[in-house]
Structure formats: C-alpha cells, structure tokens
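Quick one - first record:
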Amino acid sequence: MTRREGHDQWRRKPLYFAVREAVNSFIESSVERNWQFSKQGRDTVELVRTLCLRFDLFARQIQKRQRKRSSIIFTDEYDVQDAMHALLRLHFDDVRAEEWTPSYAGNASRVDFLLKREQIVIEAKMTRKGLDQREVANQLIIDKERYSAHSDC
C-alpha cells in the first residue's frame, strides 16, 4: 500500500462511520415510527401486563394485616376492580373506569378501565363458583372483539 492510499483510507474512515451511524439512526427511527408500539408503548404494555400477572400476589399480601387489624377482602369482581384501579392510578394519570364501548353485535358494554393516552383497555375478571377459568377465557375472547371497536383501544 502506498503512502497516498493509506492517507486516503484514514480520511474515508470517519465518513464511513458517519454514514453508517446516519443510516442506522434512520432505520431505528423508521422502525419506531411504523412499528405497532413505540418503545415507550411496549414498556407501558409490559407494565400493565406485569401488574395483571402479579395481581394475585398483591391481593394475598394486602389481606395479611398486622396486629389483628381488619383486612381487605376480595369477595367479588368489584373488590378486584377497586384494587386494580388504585394500582393503575399509581402509574397512570388518566385512568377511566367503566368507559362505554361502541355497540358490537347489537350490544354495548363498558370496559373496566381505559388508559386513554396509552390506548389500553383493561378488563378485570374474578373466578367464582359458577364462573370457572374456562368461562372467564370465553368472556375475554368476546370482550376483546367488543373492545377493539373502541377508538381508544
């Protein structure tokens, strides 16, 4: 390699790295812009998912009170909804309870919670005698279709 070629190579390296960085930045911003959720949106969905998946741990812990104090008891879905509402308010500013959805198959219904800015709908369910896990799963399948018609879902 001649001295001139070596000199040109050193001059091209910064240009190569600058172009590579610009292309990578463009690709990343394009993916973020066109992806279903932005990184922040994916993080928000993951936070809501974690709250839901760990809710039973919260419910069990909140029922263990010190010094024989009266406990919070989860007897029905409304108790679950009240607790979930409180947890959501810790993380989100605009939590709307019992938001109406557009009519689906002739029926209108309400979502338990709508996180308006994040465009996330949360439905709280509680199994009980006569409402087992299978029936809850079937209800959620129907709810999902019903709620997807909501403009903020």
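second record:
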Amino acid sequence: MGFGASARADCALKRESRGVTMIVLRDHYLNVMTFGPPMRPIFVELFGLLVGLDQEWRAQGATDDEISLAAFGFDRIKRYHVPANTGLLGGSETLVEETEEHVIAIDRYGRRTRLCKKSASIPHPLDYPVKDMDSWLKIKPRYVFSEERFGRDWAAAAARARQEGALIVVSIPGAFDEPRQLMGEENLCLAFYEQPELVHDILGAIADTASSVLDRVTRQVRVDVLSVHEDLAGKSGPLIGPAQVAEFVRPYFRRIWDMMRERGARVFQMDSDGNMEPVIPALLECGINSILPVEPAAGMDMVALRRKYGNRLAMMGGIDKHVLRRTKAEIQAELEYKMQPLMRNGGTVFGLDHRIPNGTPLENYRFYVRTAREILGLEPDPERGWERAAF
C-alpha cells in the first residue's frame, strides 16, 4: 500500500548532523488521528529501549545507530510543547545518596525517592506529602496561578513553531496521576471513599490553574493537542471505576477540554498503561478521544477497540512488545493483525505498546521494523533518525 503526492506533501525532510529524517507535520498527524482522508501511515517507536537492552544489542553486533534507533528511520512527529506549567510549581531534586545500584533523592514534591539504576528509569517514591486536608493545604499554594508558569517568549515561540508546521501541544496534570503523586495509590484509592472532599479540593485547585493558564495560551495560539498522563490501570483493570471517573475526573477534564475544543483543539490524548477497557466509555464522556500505549499484555486489543468505538477513539502504539521475543512467524502474525486495513483507515499511529523489552533479539527487532514497513507500504530504505514519539 503506497501513498500519493498529496500525502507526501504533508511530510518534510529535515537535514541534521546525523543524516536526513522523516518529519510528520501537523496537518498529516491531525488528519490521521481524526479519521480524515486516507494518508501515508505513521510508524513510530513510542518510548525506546528498556534499561539494559543496549548492552544486550551491543553483544549481538548492533551499530551505534541501531542502539540510538536512528538506523530504523522511524517517523518523527514535528511538535512543540508550549512551556506553560499547569501543575506543581517550583521545587527541585536533591541528591541524598548514590551507589552503583541506586540513587536516593528528594524530588520536587518533597518525596524521598529511590531509583534502581539497572532495572528502572523512573524513581519510586518512598513517602508522600499529602495524607489529609491539613497536609494538602501546606502544598496547595504551589498549585495556584502565577506569572511564573509561563516560559520566556512562549507565545512567539509557539507561533513560530505553528508556522513551521509543528503540532502544538499542551498538557495538564492527571486527575488520577497528580493526586497519586501527592498521596500514593493506596491512600488515594481510599480517599475517593473516605476523604472525597480532599480529592475534590485537589482537583478543583488544579482545574482552576489549568483553566487560567490554558485560557491565556489558547487566546494567543491555536493548540492542537491536549495531553494528560494518568497510568490509572494495571494488568487486571483500572484503579478507579466509572463512578469515580464521573464524579471526580469528568468535571475537571470537561472544564478544560470544552474550552480548548471551542478554540480549535482536535485531540485530547491520555497516556495510561494497563487495561482501561472498563472505564473507556466514561473517559469518552470526559472528552478523551485518543489513548496510548494500548497494552496487549493487559488485555488491550486495538483492533477490538476500533471495532467497538469506531472513530470515537484514536490510538498510538498497540503492537505487542513481548512478541518481539518470540518467533518471526509470531511477529508477522501480530503485525498482519494489528496493521490490517481496518487499522490503516485512520485513527492509528503504529508502534510498540511501550519500551522495547530486555531479551528482544536484535535480529527480531530488525525483522519487526522491516516487516511493518512492508505491510504499511512505507519506504523500504528509510531516512535515518528517531525521537521518542510519546507526548
């Protein structure tokens, strides 16, 4: 399956120090993600290598360009993330202890964290600043609106980026994720029942500031994508149900999204691992119309979701990362299923459902990329380059 001259016009080639890279411009991305006329499919790597895989691949003869993923020529979505802070303001990380095994630090929330160097890329909090209303009120001033929330010359920079064809992106704190950062998962889940007034106050403060910040942003530049990070689900299902989404999440999300949609935003994208199926209908009511990374190991099947929700739900990712550690026949079958014509008719940016896992043979990864490009009808010898595609 090839693509025509009009689709080619929505891509650009940009010369950089290490070669030439395929750039997907705003109109192309938005056309795909809003189910517009058929265009050249977009093929990306969302997150990159898991910690330690680079060493495995070097032992298998990988080149530097393969380790950096530049050799595989993934599409790069040209985007500009407006430097407008809608969440926690201020704070910095303080190193407490570092060994060959771990890093102990105090993060910007004031939490003591531990990072295991050999197996993780995200520090694990060892404590949390909010336990009740009194402790929340101590940190609440850091969520209040102020001029410090805007980067220098942000409006001019955003306008230039848009003129150059970049996708304009803004983000808001997660309705589940931000309280979780403050309280921890267990305490937050209990608070929905035992301290609902606390959760409402946290989300109300965040909504007030996010609304004020993005009201100013959208009055000066047209934003295309509203992005929110949640990670509100695990393998067995979400950590909150439709009732909690309706009571706590929807008022916040609709307040922000309704304003942004009226001013031209097209995509409201949520990042969450795990099985979100039980709350997808409730999230659609919140305005969410795009999700990533659509994790198969948690039971998320992008083809089944497309058949169920049609053009109400776009997706990024969805290809089982674990299949790369199996046979080439299984890789081929996964790609033929996930890249079938139904999925190529808009609403999908194709890629693995998260980081490339340890134990993935380099030859299997090469086969995966080559086969995917063949099925999608993309250039067999792509221009070199890569950058993280997840917003």
